[in-house]
Design brief:
- Strands 1-2-6-3-5-4 form a six-stranded mixed sheet, sandwiched between helices. A six-stranded mixed sheet has the order 9-10-8-11-7-12. A four-stranded antiparallel sheet has the order 13-14-15-16.
- It has helices at residues 41-50, 77-91, 99-111, 121-126, 146-156, 218-238, 270-285, 291-305, 310-313, 315-324, 331-340, 343-355, 454-461, 482-485, 503-530, 539-566, and strands spanning 3-7, 10-15, 22-27, 59-64, 69-74, 162-167, 199-203, 208-215, 245-251, 256-263, 358-362, 373-374, 386-389, 396-399, 403-407, 413-416, 420-425, 431-435, 440-443, 467-469.
- 37% of the residues lie in helices and 19% in strands.
- Strand 4 and strand 5 (69-74) form a beta hairpin.
- By secondary structure, it is of the alpha+beta class.
- The termini are far apart.
- It has four domains: 3-167, Metalloenzyme, LuxS/M16 peptidase-like (Cytochrome Bc1 Complex, Chain A, domain 1); 199-374, 2-Layer Sandwich (Cytochrome Bc1 Complex, Chain A, domain 1), CATH 3.30.830; 386-477, Roll (PH-domain like); 504-565.
């Protein structure tokens, strides 16, 4: 059984284990509590808290998720006590001398992170806020200060906002959780960037991904298993369209859960996989659910609940439930709920899934034919302001007192200052405004006829805590209009033009033909001037001279045009 007790004012969950002792300290704070302009602060604090601990023979780690941050260790009783005691002490006495080093480590971590198929989904559902921030780089790292970190630790890393869990038979001797007093922090409200659902968006991935929001309940977790079985049978076994097929069910701490499904596809089979994926959803939505799939999924979950270490394995999730105020059920209570799930319950979940669905589809495909609405990629309005034309193109940038709009190819795009999640600012004057709805607008002063004060207006209107200074760019990375980009700088030799293979032979043939025809025509012209008028009718000869000179001009045209192209 899982027992609940108290250690230094921190709620604690404990369950026996036959293996090595392990323990974790979980705080109710994560990326969803941040803003885009200061994103990465929780992750940075986690790294700084672990930095002084150095190397150890036992496994320890930290993790930052959307709604929680945890510190974990497996090892001896004394090592666990020393680890968690040190973490609680270091959180409020961070090694600020390592601040810039840890920032660089986090930037490297992001750059080496693989692009999973589902990485873009949170941005499209939630925008540039709360749960959507996991899709963005940690832009805020550049601007986070020592003061920011201390204030963040004082607010979130308190004993009232933490839960300790221990897989073992006792509290490690010498463990001290020296955390300051605070308050239990609620789960942040969840935003939406989708005007309506079901919706879809196009992504370069070769996978089809479903993201949906359902009420948190046992039937929803069972439905995820039933959906995976149905997809595996249809898309892999019967049609041979997909290899990787999986589903996931993840509570988000507010009485709801995210339910996802993924099926991969070869480039030539993307249309077929998308069609088969939607057919499976439609089948379940109308209630065509197999009793055998329900029975198999329930039996599999009952086997998991019957494992010897089930209580110890459930400790991290139980700690999160306790932190977020969700019901904490015993194994017997979970078994009882599993037995009550019916096909009618799964049918209700299937309807919830369809109603809230966000579908990621591969390039070159759409899902509007199946009743899905394309997720917005443009703004529905513009703001009034001073207009600045593009130097090359038909676009127009409008800088106003309420926001900025771009009207032109790919637009309209609008970001209001009050709804700006982050303003990325480069030293050369470039700006990128990212709205709460994830609409982003990049402004390169070199590409617009901007007044020198236009960028200053934008900087003044966006709140200071949303401004993110970006590192300087090398000159060759700053976009230029086409003509300016191809004009050599003072003291710089023009770059040689790459000729096509046929240009030189054509110019040689054109030159030889021009010399031949032009030379004959020139001799004929001289002859006619010298000839006596009485020699007879020479009109037809003058006609030949005219034709000769015309041919000479035509034959010389390739040389003139190719030389002009080279210049």
């Amino acid at each position: 059984m899982i027992r609940q007790l108290d250690v230094d004012g921190v709620p604690t969950l404990m369950a026996a284990t036959a293996g090595p002792m392990r323990a974790g300290l979980t705080f109710r704070v994560g990326t969803a509590d941040e803003t885009l302009g200061r994103s990465g602060i929780t992750h940075l604090l986690e790294h700084l808290a672990l930095a002084p601990l150095g190397l150890t023979d036992y496994h320890f780690n930290g993790a930052t998720a959307p709604i929680f941050t945890s510190f974990y260790m497996q090892g001896s009783e004394s090592d666990i006590a020393g680890f968690l005691t040190a973490v609680c002490r270091t959180i409020h006495d961070l090694p600020m001398a390592r601040l810039e080093v840890e920032k660089e480590i986090l930037r490297t971590e992001w750059s080496s992170r693989g692009n999973a198929a589902i990485d873009a989904v949170p941005l499209w559902r939630h925008g540039a806020r709360d749960h959507g921030l996991t899709s963005y780089p940690e832009f805020g790292l550049h601007a986070i200060t020592e003061h920011d970190l201390r204030a963040w630790a004082a607010r979130w890393f308190t004993r009232e906002n933490a839960v300790l869990w221990i897989a073992g038979d006792r509290v490690p001797a010498g463990l001290r959780l020296a955390l300051p007093a605070g308050v239990r922090q609620p789960v942040p409200p969840v935003s939406s960037a989708l005007p309506r659902t079901p919706a879809y968006f196009v992504n370069g991935s070769r996978a089809v991904v479903l993201d949906s929001v359902v009420r948190r309940r046992t039937a929803a977790g069972v439905f995820a298993g039933v959906l995976e079985r149905e997809m595996y049978r249809s898309l892999r076994q019967e049609d041979g369209l997909s290899y990787t097929i999986n589903t996931g069910y993840e509570p988000r701490g507010d009485g709801h859960a995210t339910l996802r499904a993924l099926a991969d596809a070869l480039p030539e089979k993307q249309d077929a996989v998308l069609g088969g994926f939607i057919d499976v959803l439609a089948k379940l939505r109308v209630g065509r659910i197999e009793q055998a799939d329900l029975d198999a999924t329930v039996a599999k979950r009952e086997d998991t609940l019957g494992a010897a270490e089930v209580d110890a394995a459930r400790l991290p999730s139980q700690a999160l439930d306790l932190l977020t105020g969700q019901p904490t059920l015993t194994v017997d209570e979970l078994r009882a709920e599993l037995k009550t799930v019916t096909l009618a319950d799964l049918h209700q979940v299937a309807q919830e899934v369809t109603a809230t669905a966000l579908l990621m589809v591969p390039d070159g495909t759409t899902a509007d034919w199946a009743g899905f609405t394309e997720a917005p990629t443009r703004s529905t309005h513009t703001v009034p302001g001073t207009a600045y034309r593009e130097r090359e193109g038909d676009g127009e940038l409008r800088v106003g007192v309420d926001g900025v709009s771009y009207v032109g190819p790919g637009g309209p795009l609008t970001v209001r200052y009050a709804e700006c999640a982050a303003l990325l600012a480069w030293p050369d004057g470039a700006r990128r405004l990212i709205g709460h709805d994830a609409i982003a607008m990049h402004i390169e002063p070199t590409l617009f006829d901007l007044h020198p004060g236009a960028i200053g207006v934008i900087d003044q209107q966006v709140p200071a805590d949303r401004r993110v200074p970006m590192p300087a760019r090398p000159p060759e990375k700053i976009p230029q209009p086409y003509a300016a980009a191809n004009r050599p700088q003072p003291g710089q030799r023009p770059a040689p033009v790459q000729r096509s293979w046929w240009e030189v032979p054509l110019m040689v043939l054109s030159g030889l033909a021009t010399l031949g025809v032009g030379g004959i025509t020139l001799l004929l012209t001289f002859g006619l001037f010298i000839a006596d008028e009485s020699d007879g009718d020479t009109g037809w000869l003058w006609g030949m001279v005219g034709v000769g000179w015309l041919l000479t001009v035509i034959l010389a045209l390739p040389i003139v045009l190719l030389r002009r192209r080279r210049r």
